[in-house]
Each structure stands twice: as structure tokens, then as C-alpha cells.
């Protein structure tokens, strides 16, 4: 059966309301999970142009669900998006980046999804659409666990919304894997940092691949605000990693992941502080 290929979001929602179907965007996760011969109805969203746009609005930046990682990496965005762009350049190979979408990365809900820590550090929100209307959920609430999301039947992710960020904020993404390319993360960190007169005014730190869903380190963030930029890399301590719950697997032990996460956090904070005046 050939996939249905609607050209508008409304047509896509109408098609989905007619019966369950597999959602196909870039297809990089779907085909890896099912093989080249998909069974059952498939709804191909690659023809919906509105899902591939990046726009600036009064509510911040609206990134269409169908925006590819390559398109995001090439987009003209402020420095606070540098962490997300750095993650975009590490999502699989260049061929994967040319096809894979931001929403697909979220809906696949892998604990090691490269885009998630940066989106969480940006306070990003997932917008979903259904015949009943639209709703918005923080990224951290949208992903419920490995391969599980809050997406309801008949819903499609329509956009990722990034709200206005602190003035002059910068961001950094740091990832550890067994090599530098085409690798699943052992641990990764995204940092958003802002300062005024050499003092931290805002800090967000998210860690991925060390818990079922990437998480913010709230206690660490609170301890950073009001501190001189020169001190931030020395502040993180092991007890700041309490929200993490890493596992042992073929890539690393839980203890190694905790140690790596602390090192990555310190390095990312030092890097971010060095980018601020």
C-alpha cells in the first residue's frame, strides 16, 4: 500500500482521523525499526510545507516539526541556539541529518536522543495538533520514558516552540561517545548561560543519556546564579547530579556515566562562560 501523502496539516489530521497509521517524516527511525517493507497504513508528512519552516514570532521561535537537522544547523539563529546546532551536527551521519527531523527525534523518545538536552535547556515546548485543536507541552513532559511520549491517538507534532531567551545568552553542547562520529551517546550535556557585568544571571543545565529522559539539574542551576563567570566551572559537584539515574549497558557502566557527566558539565560551563563578555 502506497503511503498517503497530504500537502497540508489539516489534510494530514483528516487522514489520521480515518484510522490509525504510522507517521513517516524523515523515516530514519521508522525504517530502522521496521525494515524497508512497512506494514499497514503509512502517513507521509514530508509534503506538508508548513511543517518545514522556521519562524520568529512574538512567542519566540517556531521550528516546524518537519525541519531537518541539516536545515536547523544552517539556519540563521542567535548564539543561544549553538548547543542545538551542535547537536544537529551529531545526529547520525550527514545523510541522516538531511532526512531526520526534530519531531522525529522527540517522538522516537530515545534516552540518548542528541537533540533533547539542548531543547530542554532552551525551555522548548512541543506543540501538537489534532482535530480537537492544539496543545503545548514542555519537552520534558512530552517524553515520558524510553520510546514513550504524551502524544495522543490522532495527534501530530506540529512544531517546537522556543520561548524568548535571556539577553545575550549563549549555549554549549558536549557529548561523549566511543568515537566522534556516528555514535550513540554515553553522556551529553547542554548548557544555556547568561551574565551581566561578569556575574551569572541565568543558567540552565540539562544532561542526556544518563536517565530515562534528559533532565535539568535544578540545584546546580540555582547555585550558579549570582556567581562570577570565572567560578562557574568549579561549582558543579557530584551531589548536583542527584536527578540522574544512569544504567549499565554495552556502552558504559552507570558509575562511568556519572563521572563523565560531571566532567562534561564542568567543561560545558567553562566553554559557555568563555563565550560571554
What this model shows, in words?
It is a single chain. The protein is built from ten helices and 13 strands. It is α+β, with helices and mostly antiparallel strands. It has two domains: 48-162, Uridine Diphospho-n-acetylenolpyruvylglucosamine Reductase, domain 3 (2-Layer Sandwich); 170-275, CO dehydrogenase flavoprotein, C-terminal domain (Enolase-like, domain 1), CATH 3.30.390.50. Strands 3-4-9-5-6 form a five-stranded antiparallel sheet. Strand 5 (125-130) and strand 6 (133-138) form a beta hairpin. Helix 4 (82-88) runs antiparallel to helix 7 (115-121). It starts with 8 loop residues before the first helix and ends with a helix. The relative contact order is 0.12. InterPro entries: CO_DH_flav_C (IPR005107), CO_DH_flav_C_dom_sf (IPR036683), Diverse_Substr_Oxidored (IPR051312), FAD-bd_PCMH (IPR016166), FAD-bd_PCMH-like_sf (IPR036318), FAD-bd_PCMH_sub1 (IPR016167), FAD-bd_PCMH_sub2 (IPR016169), Mopterin_DH_FAD-bd (IPR002346). GO terms for molecular function: FAD binding; oxidoreductase activity.
